[in-house]
Structure prediction request, 809 residues.
Amino acid sequence: MMKAPRAPKPIKPIEILHEGVTNTWELVDGAIPKHEMPLFRSFLKALKSSLEDIMTKARKGLPLIGTHFAFPSELFFAYDCAPLCFEAISYLPSALFTEGAEPFYDLANNFGHPYHTCSAQKGVIGMALKDNFFDVDAIAVPTAPCDNTMASYSFFSEVKKVPTVVADMPTYHDKRGYDYFATELKNMVKKVGAIIGQEPNFEGMRKAVGHSSKAIEYLAEINDLRAAVPCPTESMLNPLGSCAQNFFAGRAEKENFYRDVRDVAKERVKKHEGPPGVDEKIRAFFPYMSVFFDVSLCEWMDREIGMVNVSDLFNYFFFDPIPPTASVDEIFNGLARQSMEYPMTRQSEGFVDYFLEDSVFLAKKFKADCAIFSVHIGCKQSVSVVQMIRETLRDEVGIPMLTLELDIGDKRMTPAETIKKKIEEFSKTLL
Amino acid sequence: MLKSEFIEFAKELKNPHVASWKAHGGKVVGFYCTDMPEQVIHAAGMLPFRMRGTTNQDYTLSDAILSRFNCTFVRSALNLAMGGRYDFLDGLVVGNTCDHIRRMYDIFGKKLAFEPRFFLSLPHVFSEEGHAWARDEIERFVQQLSKAYKVTITTAALKDALEVYRANARLMKKICDMRQQDEPGISGTDFIKIAVANSSVRKDYANEQLGELLHAIEAKPPIKNARARLMVAGSFVDNPDFIEVLEHAGAVVVADSLCIGARSFWDAGIEKDVRASQTDPLDELVTICYERSLCPRMMGGHAGRLKYIQDQIRDAHVDGVIFERMEFCDLHGCSNMMLQHVLESSGVPVLSLDREYSLGDTGRFKTRVEAFLEKIGG
Prediction:
């Protein structure tokens, strides 16, 4: 039974992002030759479209569901609602706007949020602290992959009193763990439906899973293509892909974006070409994440020093798509498995063996000359094993690893210029 | 100050009881965190030893593995382990309590080649499914421990262990009550020493010692004319010197919400009638280790943590609360923030302190505590 329509929730960050993305899109589309920056162009198009859909739904008074980046938003397409990835809402301003998300981080810090917590949630916390600025009807979040997920999301449930449903994720990535988590997801979908007053329509979920499954297939192709020398994709694909995976989850935009990227990569590999203007000298693999607060770093790496980020951990899936013929139960089981094997969750919530083995596998697959590890202040589970990853890559792949201590979403901790200097010095040792 | 050989165990790792236990062929199994079922280790005839960083001086060894973004407690304990100071351990139990500690399972295995290790993945939310999962985890732990050490852990042994731990919790609660008296029978510093010592010995031995300590506390003149009655809450504190710094200004710590302090025994089956119908020791362990958790590792546990603190404030007539957070402790950092806002809005004076595991900047603490006591009129 549908609840009576209610006043739309304030979604100022979405509106601001939409305005910024629209302006950037117009600039890129109008001023840059059509063959330039095809990946960024496709990303902006998908982002603009996704933001417009969210705004339309919000204006209609449909429920907004806050979700987590390492979590299958496809679940909530069982309802007439708009899922919103909180971490993307923190980091999109960080990546796209000069001012970044720093004003929101400051609001959160002023409220007492510790400086060393993850900026991925801190930005949205700051947004929620501004009057009539940002709110959602419910939040659905896992207990993984980190302390910050649990610590920061508690702010929304306990301080902002947003109804929050939590799916508990165990450490073990085995049948027992997958089955437990699948039950958690089923219970979660029921509880979210009760909060927003809707009955689930699992065909909506199936359609969303279909889009994501196609995207998974395209990404697998893209990753095979990226192994080519020279790498056919710009370094920028890594931060863009990290956002696309969760912010576009369950949407046609996700499928379209990855298809576009696949097509571009395929064409370039056919011609034995890298991206225009990129003279690949060094292939760098990021065993963790890319830097989000300054996407132009990727362009600098590509064009100024010829170091291409051939892949990061966030852009490789260690799971298969869910087949279109899957039953509803199989979809839940598949999403549970995908969620537990999702980039970062697999390596951070699981035991360190995943992290070590995946790093070796990816470094070899992408023929990396070196690795660069973003030691993000928020990720305590990964900072604990950086040295082990360095040693493993050295011993098993024979490549060196540079570590960058930073906040991937806050430029004030380690500014882009400092990062450039370190990468440049590192690159000199490789050539 | 209380005089006792037992409470001096807080100053060292391999205390005389551990040394004697080892000399007689006993096994010692280290464990991280309050929510681990140490009763199972006890039932297996071994000595459960809570992991600490006591006596650590620097991070020379551990920082070759860990990062400066790791909390200084795990860096300290690992540094000691890498320096051979934990060589008396015959096993290690780690849980998915926080990210820093969870990785100790990996690091002890990969970098120290330490075996046997045991891991418990306990749920982070309270639910029926979580209860069943936690029970399964504890049952598996019983089996793994039995297999690793070739011992039989019977139901009767588990029940006996639970009874020993219940008695221990009752004794600790009695001492805690003495700390809460109008004229406290014991200082917060001595209480933490007792709690630390209690976490580093067999509980049957501890119970004998605690019984004697109770008499000693009763015989001792109470603390009079304290400037203020404080509660301390937050990250892991096993260093009595930290509490001493707070009390040095003339306050007395009459309550705490610390994992090695009151949280280690609170509601741990003291009121036996609550669980009179439960005959399965595994179910009782689930209740103790999972359902009563006051650690911010539990999502949805804020209300319980707040109630516990509010009850303590009321029962111990607390004048002010000190929330302390070890640097890079995200769970307590965020939990403290939320608790602080609620308490302050209800008129409870609160001081928030950031600290490192090692007590290097006592001057700063003293100044801030002095100012806080001035503020609350102490």
Remarks:
- The radius of gyration of chain B is 20 Å.
